[in-house]
Amino acid sequence: MLTVMTPGAAAIRPLNPEAHGAWTRVLAKAGYVIDPWRCDVDSGAFVVGHRTLSLLGLRHNPCGVIDLVRAYDEEDRATILSILEQATAASSSFCFSAMVRRPGGSSHQLCCIGNSTIDEGAGGSLQGVFAVPGSGAALPG
């Protein structure tokens, strides 16, 4: 599925750490800047890297899922929420890409690659990377 993700693309599969690693390597090889994140499923608190925090226009770490999703284009929000909802229902590997619009009018592609580990009745966690095209990255057509 992933050559370099175009905005609006998304995928979710049963947990497969090899898929996560392969997707991340493809983006890194294409010149994307990688920023780690994690989330505790019970609290819903996301801790994102400083680069992603700034890109999303957020001021506080940890932040909530609504804070994250609100920064994306309105047309992509339902897809992102659906992917995250599915990932919290069963251990999964997932990815999505969407555009982030800044108040000044600039926009940036932001890719998310993650794994969820869900424990029966005991919560779980999500972790992964956000990736943005760096200088020289091949932007999807």
Describe the structure in your own words.
The chain has one domain (about 35-135): PAS domain (Beta-Lactamase, 2-Layer Sandwich). With about 140 residues, it is of the alpha+beta class. It has helices at about 15-30, 50-55, 65-70, 75-90, and strands spanning about 10-15, 30-40, 45-50, 90-100, 105-120, 125-135. It has a six-stranded antiparallel beta sheet with strand order 1-4-5-6-2-3, with helices on both faces. The protein is about 30% helix and about 35% strand.
Q: CATH superfamily, please? A: PAS domain
Strands side by side in the biggest sheet:
1-4-5-6-2-3
Low-confidence stretches: 136-141
Strand content: 35-45%
Taken in chain order, the helices and strands follow as: EHEEHHHEEE
Q: How many structural domains in the coordinates?
A: 1
CATH architecture: 2-Layer Sandwich
| Overall 3D shape | globular
Helix content: 25-40%
Structural class: alpha+beta
CATH top-level class: Alpha Beta
- Largest beta sheet, briefly? 6 strands, antiparallel
Query: If helices are DSSP runs of H or I spanning 4 or more residues, what is the number of helices?
Result: 4
Span between termini: 15 Å
Query: Which topology does CATH recognise?
Result: Beta-Lactamase
Mean pLDDT: 84
